[in-house]
Request: fold
Amino acid sequence: MDFQIGSKIKKLRKARKLTLQDVARETGFSPALISQIENNNVSPPIATLSKIAKFFDVKMGHFFEEEEEERKYEIVRRLDRRVVSRVISKAGTGHGYTYEALSFRKRNKKMEPFVLTIAERAEDETLYNHDGEEFLLILKGTAEVILDEERFTLEAGDAVYFDSSLRHRLLASSDEEVQVLAVVTR
Reply:
């Protein structure tokens, strides 16, 4: 299912009477990348989406919500997960991963749970940071997490919890697929 993340970003931008250059200047991303995201040509990685959400003062979940009434709980069946697969980096290159939103109807959440699937080891090791905290649990495969200048190898069953203001990156250790439960707070 398509979230139309880009059109939601465009709607927020236009409601505030901002240009692509205004958003780019404040978020640190290029106007071309913001345009690609708004036109749903690419989907931003979680760190990029988090910075955009912070700039517009909305929760990341805003981009995954359907226009429905507020719920006190939400059950998401495996086949109903929302998949975002065209994930592109700030530099415009592919990351080789997809993420599935595990909650997208519940509004005003304090956390965003995702299942990340990393299909290949990325050549780009650009580190990202954003507000909030993250929890990662390796479900399948072997991953490498970079936290500032330190590298850690995590295998299935291993977990890491960190302040997202640390420059960080999650990579597959090889071309073996890695599956990760990720929970991000704002």
In short: The CA atoms of residues 81 and 167 lie 28 Å apart. The chain has one domain: 5-185. The domain at 5-185 is CATH 2.60.120.10 (Jelly Rolls).
